Structure formats: structure tokens, C-alpha cells
């Protein structure tokens, strides 16, 4: 029996055109961040449609974003002690209490960041981005401070002391070496310093998983973040 064309290794005279880089990129599965961002965006749009009265994205403001963040608190898993609670400010309470569970501020902050990016990726104007509104930033800062006091785990901002110290040292060295060497030393230090942000249940589950990681960073080893 004569071998067929396949056995002879005959090359197809009309091969399919090679895929373009854009087509290859489209076939590549989205990253975990992109998938989460898409779910968050679809959830927020669903929240706007379910709002009473329904809201359009064009009419959405920072106040509506804050309202959405407060709505998500019902799905939270972080214990936030009330001011009248015996364990208020206690980082590792010895017994349970009736204080509510809320979303951790770190989870809300990350959520706002993803939604802010998604808004602009969906033809939103950066200047009118409700997720970047000043009121939203103030709300997140208040949540951060209040949860830190309630849980006894204050969140400290990282200070850039090393770079400031280096700048002072360079300035002092340049001054002792003469006026001519002052500006290059300070300029180099400043340059170094300049090089140095689909559904409700799905979002709630993602936020809860991120809270677990945040709780392990905020509380000492061996302690529980929810009590």
C-alpha cells in the first residue's frame, strides 16, 4: 500500500497565517489580578442596578462608593470591637464577644484601587473617577484608624528616614568640601530620592481571603485577628 500524503510529510501549501502578538495576548488567560478586577467591576455595576432608585455610572459619586463599601461590611470577617466592648483595643481577646464583623480596611483599600483602574479602563474620565474622590480617601483613612484602635493594632506608615539621613550627610559633606561641590552632591541625592499605588458574594469571598493575609501581618504570631 502506497503511503498517503501524510506519511510522505507533504507540507500544506496554504498554511494558516501566523498569529499576531495581539492575538496571542488575547488567548493568554488573564492574571489573577485582572480576573478579580473584572469581577469587582461587574459586582459594582450590579450594585448600581440594584440601587433604589437605580443609578447610572455617569451619576455615581464618591458618596455612592462609600455607600457600596459600607454595604460590603455585612460580608466581612474581621472583628471590630465597639467602644463599649470590654476587649476594645485588645489585640488578642481571651474570649468571644458580640461585636460585629466588618471588612478589613486593607481589603477595602485594595478593592477601591482595582475599581479605580477598572473605571478608567471602561472609558471613564480620570478627572471624574468616583473611586478617586477625596471623600473616599478620607473614609478609608478613618476606617484604618478606627479599626486600628478597636483591634489594638495601630497601622504605622513607613518612614523614609534612611533617604533623608543620606541627603543630610551628602549636604554636610558637600559643604565641608567647598561651595563648588555642594550642588552636584545635593542633586544626586535628590535624584536618588525621586526614584524611590460578577457578583457580590464573589467579591466578598475575595475580600475575606485577602483579610486573612492582612490579619497575619497586623497581629503578632500565634494570635487571632477575629475574636
TrEMBL record:
This is (wild Malaysian banana) hypothetical protein. Residues 206-216 have a biased composition (Low complexity). GO terms for molecular function: DNA binding. GO terms for biological process: mRNA transcription; response to light stimulus. It comes from the Eukaryota. Belongs to the plant homeotic and developmental regulators ALOG protein family. Coiled coil: none annotated. Residues 1-36, 206-227 are annotated as: Disordered. Keywords: Developmental protein, DNA-binding, Nucleus, Transcription, Transcription regulation. It holds the Pfam family ALOG_dom. GO terms for cellular component: nucleus. The keyword Transcription applies.
